[in-house]
Amino acid sequence: MMGAYLLKRLVSNVLLVAIAASMAYFLAATSLNPRAKYEGRPTKVAESVIDATLDDYNLNDKTPVFERYVTWASGVVTGDLGKTWDGKSINDEMGRRIGVSLRLLLVGTLVGCVVGVTVGAYAAVKQYRLSDRVIGVSAFVIMAVPVFVLATMLTLVAVGINDTLGFTLLEYTGEYNPALSGWDQFTNRLNHLILPTISLALGQIAFYSRIQRNMMLDVLGQDFVRTARAKGLSRRAALFKHALRTSLVPAATYFAFAFGTLLTGATFTEKIFGWHGMGAWLVDSIHTHDTNAVAAVSLFAAVCVLVAGFLSDLIVAALDPRVRVS
Amino acid sequence: MRSKVTLARLVRNPQARYGLLALVLLLALAYLGPFFGPYDWTEKDFMAFLSPPSADHWWGTTQIGQDVYAITLRGMQKSIVIGFLVALVSTGLAALVGAAAGYFGGWADKALMWGADLLLVLPSFLIIAIISPRLKGGSWLWFVLLLALFSWMITSRVVRSMTLSLREREFVLAARYMGIPAWKIILRHIVPNLSSLLIIDATINVSGAIIGEAALSFFGFGIQPPDVSLGTLIAAGSDKVTGYPWLFLFPAGLLVLLVLSVNLIGDGLRDALDPGSNK
């Protein structure tokens, strides 16, 4: 039953991804103008040469847009995402950038979920105490601070700390220092991850802690928690085994939604901290009129959202026995 | 009177009180502040480039000699106007579409909700980013419409499901049997009964739109020069934040305060209008 349900969701989600990516392609193909990149060059290039080059990259606006779409879509189906405006392979570029983005997204999601749920559950157990109030107010304030403000503030703080210490304690641009190797290289990469992770995860932590606190409070007052205590379970076991697990179910359903905001947030963190990931590519490719790159990033984002929704279903199924049985 | 009870609850709610107070102060700063500043936002002081805050230029100057105080308040005015307009349009759309879908049912319901689902799936960030800077005339009103177009869908689903139960109530049935046209029933009897939901939604939409505007403008996809908004100012300031932090801190701080005060009011309203909900 569960398998059939998941399969049905998978099919409808693949359809949605196809629609979203196609829409993105049509939008980019009709409103972006890669031709201008060639016509604007200081040395005049003959129009026939431009046409031939654009034809080669499937970017010629003289070809009807539907014909270009068919060429693009048949390429995508066979795993070829086309060429950038200056003729490089999108697949190569994407391979490099996906690794960068996934590292950021994975760490951000993990830290955000785990810390957020823990903080929220803690606040619920300490309801109306000082710690609960502090957590509540901080979450409220953090949720009013957009990612780009938070990330810029963090660079400002990092520069301040580095200046007072006289050496670079916190890295704030790029992914790693190419001059280092081996173990130094690894710790350097970790150092470069700190600030982007904080700026991505803080919003997630605030979001999850608010949800988790409310859900946990709902659960704490219910009979089965009292029963668990009455049959002799310690307070800790009753909280962890019964209350926390049950209250995680509603929070897990928000996972897909929170991941969507994380994805948008990653665009800002990548741009601000100088990471060359997918989000930075989206912004750059719109500015450089790079139709196929825009379509490729949209496809990636749609697939990410699909996977997050799917994961969210799986987590709910794993936590909630009613879903598995029915 | 219900509205009186609500108002009393709202005033008694400390969150809403502080939020309202902060919002009034921020509005006063944005619209009255420019009259007290020594410079106009279009003026350029060629004797002071990138100078830090001082008695002459309260919040410092930019690299082309603009007064940061004057230009930030100008940008704040635009952000506030955009926030309120987007909230108005998107909540209005949500109310009309949701109520129509719920009231008429049948194929109208299916078509409207299919449209809402489609808009939810589309990559709104990408669409606004590509279309908005390319609109002819570059009027920021188009930008407002685009932002609103992508923010009404979820509320309209809630409105629809509430309309489904309102539709069967006696006062709606009575109105229908008296021969009152459907659009009048929707506007006079259904939408007013959803007012508490819509007021809360509109408040949340204001802060959402202010952040959305700033986010798109941050990448250059929103408000286009020579217009300024908090988003364009933050974008310009974040490039130079390490050397000239005042370019970033004033617009960013005001943005956060603005969003925070609106969110406080929204939370307070939810408590006052909807006592059953647990936030």
Tell me what you see in this structure.
The complex is a heterodimer of chains A (326) and B (279). Chain A starts with a helix and ends with a helix. Helices cover 78% and strands 0% of the residues of chain A. Chain A contains 14 helices and no strands. The mean pLDDT of chain A is 85. The radius of gyration of chain A is 24 Å and the shape is globular. Chain B is an all-alpha fold and 279 residues long. Chain B has one domain: MetI-like (MetI-like fold, Orthogonal Bundle), CATH 1.10.3720. The longest helix of chain B is centred in the first third of the chain and has 37 residues. The radius of gyration of chain B is 22 Å and the shape is elongated. Chain B starts with a helix and ends in a 6-residue tail after the last helix. Chains A and B meet through helix 1, helix 6, helix 7, helix 8 and helix 11 of A and helix 5, helix 10 and helix 12 of B. Chain A: Belongs to the binding-protein-dependent transport system permease family. Chain A: It is a multi-pass membrane protein. Chain A: This is Peptide ABC transporter permease. Chain A: Keywords: Cell membrane, Membrane, Transmembrane, Transmembrane helix, Transport.
In brief, what are we looking at here?
With 326 residues, chain A is an all-alpha fold. Chain A has 14 helices and no strands. With 279 residues, chain B is mainly α.
**Class of secondary structure makeup of chain A:** mainly alpha
Q: If you compute it from the alpha carbons, what radius of gyration of chain B comes out, rounded to the nearest whole angstrom?
A: 22 Å
Q: Major β-sheet of chain A, in short?
A: none
Q: pLDDT below 50 for ≥5 consecutive residues: which ranges of chain B?
A: none
Structural class of chain B: mainly alpha
Strand content of chain A: under 5%
